[in-house]
Amino acid sequence: MRFLEAVKVALTAITANRLRSSLTVLGVVIGVMSVVLLVAVGTGARDEVTEGIESLGSNLLIVVPGELQHGQAPGRRGFTLDDVDQLRRELPPGSEVTTNLGGGERVRVDGTEAAGTVVGTTPEYPQVTDLGIARGQFFNESDVTASRRVAVLSASAATDLFGEGDPLARQVTMGGLQFRVVGVTEEIQTAAFGPQAAGGQVFVPVTAAQRLFGLTQLDTLLVQAPDRDRLDAVGSEVERILSGGPGVEREVSVITQDEILGVAGDILDTLTLVLAAIAGISLLVGGIGVSNIMLVSVTERTREVGLRKALGARTRDITRQFLVEAVVLCGFGGVVGIGLGVSLAALAEAITPLPATVTTWSVATAFGVSVAVGVIFGTYPARRAGRLDPVVALRSE
Predict the structure, then answer these.
(1) What is the pTM of this model?
(2) Where does the pLDDT of residue 142 fall: very low under 50, low under 70, confident under 90, or very high at 90 and above?
(3) Helix or strand run (H / E) with residue 182
(4) DSSP notation for 188-255
(5) What tens digit of pLDDT does each residue of 340-390 get?
(6) Cβ atoms < 10 Å from Cβ of 89
(7) What is the per-residue pLDDT for 232?
(8) Count of alpha carbons within 13 Å of 343, Cβ hemisphere only?
(9) Cα–Cα distance, 310 to 67 (Å, whole number)
(10) Are 333 and 32 in contact (CB under 8 A)?
């Protein structure tokens, strides 16, 4: 039996019992759809985090207290403003230093209230993190020195609190203290490490943030090297300066963008694989269902197999017929599952905060796996059909 003829016979058998065929491929459809959807969500999260980290600039160093180890929080002995001043004095010309002292606060304007992240920092912050100012201005050094209660809102925070109104020179209340709005940033599109996370943010002078939170130390320092070629040299200088003198040693961790991308990428890649593996379980169950239904089909069509063999069909012809039928069923289920997975990924991205990126490799892999499921789980029923004795098969009821 030629291959095209086997396909034709398989399609005839499939369409002869449409309800059973539909139920047979349902498990494959759900499995492939789950693989495409979950891999899209995992890949979208990875792309968003990567884009956010890269948006901070390629020559950025993130400095945290203590030794940073995977799975462990850094040390709690933070930095001080004296450390910032020392770095500014001793680092090579062209380097910039800013701070990040963050915490969650409820932000209120008249009767409107929104959750926000307060970021205590210095005037160098926009330059170091490439943060644009859409309206007004960022606060200056005198605001930091005098601990003035002034604030710069992110675009989303301004919209949440003031709608379409102009927030400049208006007052916002955080932790029982009023801050005057002096600027609004451009839209922050992506989530990044630490300070520039997407969402409603309020930037205030670091000294005002220390008073707001009742803290004296700083969580993180951000250092911008003059250029990428001097990144390692500046990082070594930062460690030397902040480690302290004899008898006052202090551990610090200096993290580059590449290190953050590597760790974040590894974590998100592992997460994506776990999600794909979970979805693959449903595909495995679907394959078992295909095998069971094909075995039932062989039993029901025993007389048909006997008649074909009596008319000259060879064992391999019968085997090929049933195998092609299983592969066609699973292939069709794979196509339907891919369509549903892509549609649900687009829907999830449109109506939920979840990012979803459908990649060519995930679609191709899902289809390939669905066909492989047909081959693997269709082989045994097909071989069983091919080995039927024609005399016994013709006698069966």
Answers:
(1) 0.61
(2) very high
(3) strand 177-185
(4) --S--SGGG-SS-EEEEEHHHHHHHHT--SBSEEEEE-SSGGGHHHHHHHHHHHHT-STT----EEEE
(5) 999 998 898 888 777 888 888 888 888 888 888 888 877 777 777 666 665
(6) 9
(7) 83
(8) 7
(9) 78
(10) yes
Distance between alpha carbon 257 and the CA centroid of its chain, in Å?
Answer: 18
Residue 134, pLDDT score: 92
Q: Are 168 and 175 in contact (CB under 8 A)?
A: no
**For range 104-111, the mean pLDDT:** 87
Distances (CA, A) of 145 to 66, 141, 148, 193: 28, 6, 8, 27
The CA R_g of the chain, rounded to the nearest whole Å, is 32
| Amino acid sitting at position 217 | Q
Identify how many contiguous H helices and E strands the chain contains and give both numbers.
13, 10
Amino acid identity, residue 396?
A: S
Is residue 319 a contact partner of residue 14, using CB atoms and an 8 Å limit? Answer: no
Closest to 385 measured CA to CA, from 275, 269, 277, 303: 303
pLDDT over 70 (residue 4): no
Q: Are 212 and 175 in contact (CB under 8 A)?
A: yes
Burial of 343 (0-12, 13-18, 19+ CB in 10 A): middle
Q: What percent of the chain has pLDDT over 90?
A: 19
Are the C-beta atoms of residues 101 and 207 closer than 8 Å to each other?
Answer: no
